[in-house]
Amino acid sequence: MKKIYLLWSILLLCFSHGIAQVSFQTKVSKNRLGLNERLRVSFEMNQNGDNFTPPSFNGFNVVGGPNQSVSNSWVNGVRSFSKSYTYFLTPTRKGKITIAQASIEIDGEVYKTTPVQIEVTQAVNNPNSPQARANAIADENLHLVAEISKRNPYLNEAITVIYKLYFSSEISVSNVNETESPKYSDFWSHLIPIPKLEIKRGEFKGQPYNYVTWRKTVLYPQKTGKLVIAPLTLNVSVDVPTNRRDFFGNRVYQKTPKMITAGKRTIDVRPLPLAGRPNDFDGAVGDFDLNVKFNKTALKSSESFQATIKVSGRGNLKLFSLPKLSAPSSLEVYEPEHKENVKTNLLGMQGNIEDTYTVVPQYQGNYPIPSVSFSYFDPVKALYVSLRSEEQLIDVFEGPTASSNTAAPNILQKNNINATPYFDFIKLETVLLSMDQTNFYGSANFWLLLLLPFILYVVIVLVKRRSENYTVDPVTQKQRRAARLAKKYLSSAKKVLGDKENFYNALERALHNYLKAKLSIETAEFSKESIVTLLQQKNSSPETIADFISILEKCEAARYSPATAVSMQEDFDFTVQTITLLDREI
User: Fold this and answer.
1) Are 229 and 149 in contact (CB under 8 A)?
2) Cα separation of the two ends of the chain
3) How many CA atoms lie within 13 A of 522 on its CB side?
């Protein structure tokens, strides 16, 4: 019995020792601190665990962490393990604040810490703790600066904001994280990527400093008046020197977290002057050139030509519309194909934008294309500049004429025909001759004259039907040209799969030209309601009409939403399928 009791005692002792060896607790740097001091909180365990859940830290702001550390060592055959999660906190109010429980899972069991109460007093004037001294040194040697190229720009004039992190040679920084990004709600913004952070030498307030360029942004203000740029905030780990030295006499550094911000910045945006503003001004600000070119100026009426309006230079290229092409009513002008070749750097947008129009003449003749005017505001010279292209003459040398009635008088005037000799064969006196007394009724001439009207009627009907198969009126010609353009733009859309903007522009033009070919409607009649009505009149099914309208809406929405190459291919295949089905129904 004594042996049995001894055995049970040993097992119970081992079991109780196995339970007691798991430790998970909260350790704080101090239980009482000032409102302007920082608190270090560590959650330590002596066995490795998973699924760590920190408390909510109500009443504190987390300015650093979690920093994880693991220590595993063997001394005289005895294993020593320690793991901790460390946070750095700043209180948000005075009074007694409780740090709630943290939890972790060790060997399938959930362990929780005991809540710790912290007393926060009023701000300390001269904190003497090592952490306070480290914070003071970091504050003196670490600065985040927002450099703005221009504080008083014009509306839509480019400015740059460069954020630089300055730090003296007495400290070193690491683990820089962006905790709060600046917001540009009243600006068009473009973030210039920085592929690699480089430490450079510079000056801050007349003193030599190291600095790193953290962020570069180009802004175009979209409103006038005082506009606020929200601050950029970084969380930085700073190595601060202490008064202690190691065994070899080297300075010992203390790592301290630091929250640093560049603060808000205010931009006073000036409105564009009203004096001297041209009537065709559309918001372009910068320095630009205008180029209008035609790929051909002489062609047949069955052919087409392209007119390109191109604006190049430096300024807000993506924020204004190009001038429209004007043409006589006898020239059919289709919606332009828009292209952009714009790059953005610290000087702003640079490059060119262009609209290419496809124009199809209806009749032969000479057609003047009016000059194109474009105006912009130059912020450097503080004045408006107007550019104008030359008028172009298009020669259509073959095809139907606009009106044969109007052409006849011109021909008579040019040839100066004297009509009198051509009427000399007309006899003014009638001479009656006696007829043959042969009986005309029942003769061959009688039957020939009797049947001649019916024969002529049959011949005229056959000739008319045959001529309809070969003669194409201007409306039919327009429909055939629109059908060819629909196939052309479908082919163009297939070639630019992957280029979202050009793909959906080409797809939309293909749909428009298909409707022109099938429904004989003009561009001005392109509203969804009119399209639905016309397709219903053609006895198209509601499902096919809904699919066609959904494609048009997707083309419109795709300019402002992301799209992948896979979704573009699906939209293209669905468009071809819908057009094929609609063509059968019509």
Assistant:
1) no
2) 104
3) 6
The whole-number pLDDT of residue 378 equals 96
Decide: helix, strand or coil at residue 537.
helix
Contact by Cβ (8 Å): 512, 527: no
For 316, 365, 393, 555, 565, the CA distances from 561, given in Å and listed in that order, are 21, 45, 41, 10, 13
C-alpha closest to that of 159 among 213, 218, 214: 218
Same CATH fold assignment for domains 21-124 and 288-396:
yes
Bridge partners (DSSP) of residue 341 are 352
Q: For the chain, which ranges sit under pLDDT 50?
A: 15-20, 404-425
- The one-letter code for the residue type at 509 is R
CA distance 429 to 350: 88
The correct answer on CATH 3.30.450 for the domain covering 474-585 is no
Residues facing residue 202 across a β-bridge: 209
Short-list 182, 190, 141, 145, CA closest to 163? 145
Name the token pair of 169: 């040679």
Query: What pLDDT score does 476 carry?
Result: 58
Enter the tokens of residue 172.
């070193």
| In contact, 335 and 183? CB cutoff 8 Å | no
The 10s digit of each residue's pLDDT in 488-502 is 667 877 777 777 778
- Alpha carbon separation from 113 to 66, 104, 535 (Å, rounded): 17, 9, 72
Question: What DSSP designation does 193 have?
Answer: P
> How far is the C-alpha of 309 from the C-alpha of 290, rounded, in Å?
8
Distances (CA, A) of 17 to 12, 21, 103, 270: 8, 6, 22, 77
Q: Which pLDDT value is given to residue 465?
A: 80
Indicate the domain borders of the chain: 21-124, 134-269, 288-396, 474-585
What is the predicted pLDDT for the residue at 552?
Answer: 82
Contacts of residue 286, defined as CB under 8 A and 6 or more positions apart, other chains included, come to 157, 158, 313, 314, 315, 316, 317, 348, 349, 376, 378, 379
CATH of 288-396 given 2.60.40.740, 3.60.140.10, 3.30.10.20, 2.60.40.790: 2.60.40.740
What is the token pair recorded at 498? 């992957």
Judged by DSSP in three states, 53 sits in strand
* The predicted structure's pLDDT at residue 127: 54
Q: How far apart are CA 80 and CA 67, in angstroms?
A: 20
**Which numeric CATH code is attached to 21-124?**
2.60.40.740
Which two three-digit tokens encode residue 246? 């190691």
Beta-carbon contacts of 21 under 8 Å, excluding residues fewer than 6 positions away, are: 46, 47
How far is residue 311 from each of residues 315, 318, 574, measured CA to CA in Å? 11, 11, 35
Evaluate whether 165 touches 214 at the Cβ level (below 8 Å): yes
The DSSP H or E segment spanning 411 is helix 404-415
Percentages (nearest 5) of helix, strand, coil residues in the chain: 30, 40, 30
pLDDT tens digit string along 75-121? Answer: 666 777 888 888 888 888 888 999 999 999 988 889 999 999 999 88
Question: What pairs with residue 208 in β-bridges?
Answer: 203
CA distances from 365 to 301, 362, 395 (A): 9, 9, 6
pTM of the predicted model as reported, rounded to 2 decimal places: 0.50
